Amino acid sequence: MSKIEIKNLMFGYDTQGTLLFDHVNLNLDSNWKLGLIGRNGRGKTTFLNLLQNKLSYQGKINASLKFDYFPQKIENKQQLTFFVLNDLGVTEQWKVERELNLLGTDPDILWREFTTLSGGEQTKVLLASLFTQTVNFPLIDEPTNHLDINGRKQVANYLKQKKQGFIVISHDRKFVDDVADHILSIEKSNILMYQGNSATYEEQKKLSDTHEEMENAKLKKSISRLKQTAAEKAEWSRSKEGEKFGNPHAKGSGAIGDKGGIGARAARTMKRALTLQKHMQRDIDEKEKLLKNIEYVDPLSMNFQPGHHERLLTVNKLTLSYPDAKRPLFDPISFEIKQGKRVGIVGPNGAGKSTLIHAILGDFAGEITGEVIQPKNLKVSYVRQAYEDNRGTLQEFAEAQHLDYQEFLNNLHKLGLERNVFTTRIEHMSMGQRKKVELAKSLSVPAELYLWDEPLNYLDIFNQEQLETLIKSVAPSMLIVEHDQAFIEHVTNDVVELKN
Asked: Which residues are within 8 A (CB) of 274 and not within 5 positions of it... i.e. 6 or more apart?
């Protein structure tokens, strides 16, 4: 058993102007299966990078163990998967095959090119690689992205059965609930530790929020009274200043000829008033700092512009195949999307869900049988699963994408992107923040049809609820690929399952 000791940790990015971590003190046990949760942009991945000493910070982080991070950085994705793992330091084939079997995955995928694996298959391969090296402490960042429902269950069971501890980040509360025995939550103003799983955290957080809402109401009334009193004192001090210039109409004015005496009195009065204002402002600032961990979420907007087309997309007996493949990706499918209707696409990892969207967009290079019919010049808004090529400042990005800059920024802020991040270049943002940029872009694009490929990846529960509320209220025409079964059930009119 080893300890990870954190003392007076202070860290903030220069571009953001505020501290992500301010005098944080923690003692973590390497035997714990620790779930790290918190809203996007609060510093979850940054915390893992600090543990790995990848960033400069103030304070101390003492750990007598080495860390392994998931997802690992891959230099050459164009080679066979086993050779990708060789580059990551995995040399014993039997060990990685053992881990893949525990993950319910055919070890034969080791002999396929890494780029041909689905996102879920890549996730399992990299997790298997991580746990072949059991001497190090795993830091697992968002393993549930790209995993289907069955894949999430498999990975949860896999991690639950591991004897060693780890830290795992995930926005899937059920997943965290299944694997964690401790919760570390990055709140708006501090970091809180809970013994137990996410269900324990939710229960205690609800009690804490109820108490805090009551305290916040009292604080807001107190702040309002202080501000009103400060304004009255400021007006009073200004009226006293008038005496200095012999204003006979100034309230409490002395004799006109006694300007020297009045001036001295006015100066003393002004000094006392300014001192009082400073004390009041300090009290206001201190009380406002206490308004801390309650999360507030604003409704999003969507630039849905329905046209005159009744039928926006018709898919008839469609199959897709890669060159030299023995069989199509999925059995023939047929469906249509009419104005204001939403279709969900579901299926296991590797079934061809993202490939279907590429075929609809006209950029699938393989063999297509069947029909994809849509009106000419149909205005489409697309949320991509991979968006690492989004770069530059937000203003440069908005101009390049021909977006309404103000609407784009408003949606970003409502999605929880702090204003102090607006000056950060997109390529320097966290993956959750970059996902919000991709999503806000789609919301700002004028569109008749929305194609969203796994929109919930990297998004927290507040954002997921925002999107659900938005879709229900606007009722746009959409095709949605998503592994979250509840979300699909809540926002779609029809579901198409791909079977391979």
From this structure: 237
